[in-house]
Structures are given as structure tokens and as C-alpha cells.
Design goal:
The protein is built from 4 helices and 7 strands, in the order αααβββββββα. The chain is an alpha+beta fold. The termini are far apart.
Length: 194
């Protein structure tokens, strides 16, 4: 293990004055740490510029393709309702499933293009969204509808609680409890009678 003394230049010791110019195998500590600091600064600058580039690309992608936004409208007391923009997908490319207490929307789209130069491009898009269905909602009565504007609406009504008919509840009366009194043993009573 190296300590600070190993990285110190040989010329700083008192032996160097007696031996004259001597070269060591250990580089100067300042040189190593300065180079390391410069490399770390370059890496930090690169990461900052890369992050800024990714942020700008994500913003332009969201502006061009707003088809991935969802607007859940969980009404108070009205059940479950979600609206998802799917205008980039045809109805046959979409599927909606109920898995347990989750609603899963999956859209898959493949596009193949060949231009006049013979270049071939292939694009595969997948849209997958999941929503938790609240316990008070009837997941079996879930419905989906697609508007002309490309909005997919997924709805489910609240569970209807069965109406309980009116009935009288009888009151049960328990038998009278024995009155607390002095404890008398059977053997003690027999001795007094004899």
C-alpha cells in the first residue's frame, strides 16, 4: 500500500543532498492528481452536454408525437375512467386486457419502407400502459370505446351494493344469572345437618 511518503519526490529527503541527482520510480503526487482532476472535469463536461442533448431530443419527440399521453379521470363515486391518446395506432393494433385488478393496454405497430434508391427501413412501435382498478369498481363490467380523434376511453362502473331487505332482528334474552352470595360447600352443609 502506498502512503504519502512513497509519492513524495526523492529530492525532498536529506539523503538526496548527499547523493546528488537521483531519479525515483514514483511520479510526483501533484502530477498524478492534477491529471486525474483534468480527466474528471472533461468527463463531467461531456456528461453535462450529453444530458442536455438528451433533454432537448426528448422535448422535440414529445412535441412531434403527443400520442403517448394519458388523462386519467377517476371520478368521485362514478367508477373508473381513463382516456388514452392512441391516434398513431389502428384499432386492430390495440388490445385491452384485465389482469387481476389491473387494466393493461398494449399497442403494437410495424412499418416497413423501401425508397426509390432501394434503402429499406423498419420501424416497430410499442405502447404499453397499466392502470390499477380500485376495489370499489366492477372490473368485469369494463368497456372500451375509440373516438374518431384517436382517444381510447376505458371505463368501469362502481360496484353496486345489493340492497338489503328490511327485517326485524330478534333480541335474545339470556337466563337469569345466579345471585352472588356466600359460598357454601356441600360437605359443610351435610355436617351441620347431622
Amino acid at each position: 500500500m502506498l502512503c504519502r511518503m512513497h509519492l513524495a519526490p526523492f529530492a525532498s529527503s536529506s539523503l538526496a543532498t548527499r547523493l546528488g541527482t537521483v531519479r525515483t520510480l514514483w511520479p510526483h503526487a501533484e502530477t498524478i492528481f492534477t491529471e486525474l482532476q483534468q480527466e474528471m472535469e472533461k468527463a463531467r463536461e461531456f456528461m453535462s452536454s450529453f444530458e442536455q442533448l438528451l433533454t432537448n431530443q426528448a422535448a422535440t419527440t414529445m412535441e412531434r408525437a403527443p400520442g403517448t399521453s394519458a388523462a386519467p379521470t377517476l371520478g368521485s363515486g362514478e367508477g373508473f375512467s381513463v382516456c388514452q391518446d392512441v391516434k398513431n395506432f389502428a384499432p386492430e393494433q390495440l388490445s385491452v386486457k384485465v389482469v387481476g385488478r389491473k387494466v393493461v393496454l398494449v399497442g403494437q405497430k410495424e412499418t416497413q419502407n423501401v425508397d426509390e434508391k432501394g434503402s429499406f427501413s423498419y420501424k416497430y412501435e410499442v405502447l404499453k400502459r397499466e392502470w390499477d382498478v380500485p376495489e370499489e369498481v366492477d372490473a368485469e363490467a369494463l368497456t372500451c370505446s375509440l373516438t374518431k380523434e384517436g382517444q381510447l376511453r376505458i371505463e368501469a362502473p362502481r360496484l353496486a351494493l345489493p340492497g338489503a331487505p328490511e327485517r326485524n332482528v330478534p333480541i335474545q334474552v339470556s337466563p337469569a344469572a345466579p345471585q352472588p352470595g356466600p359460598a357454601v360447600e356441600d360437605g359443610a352443609t351435610n355436617k351441620t345437618q347431622a
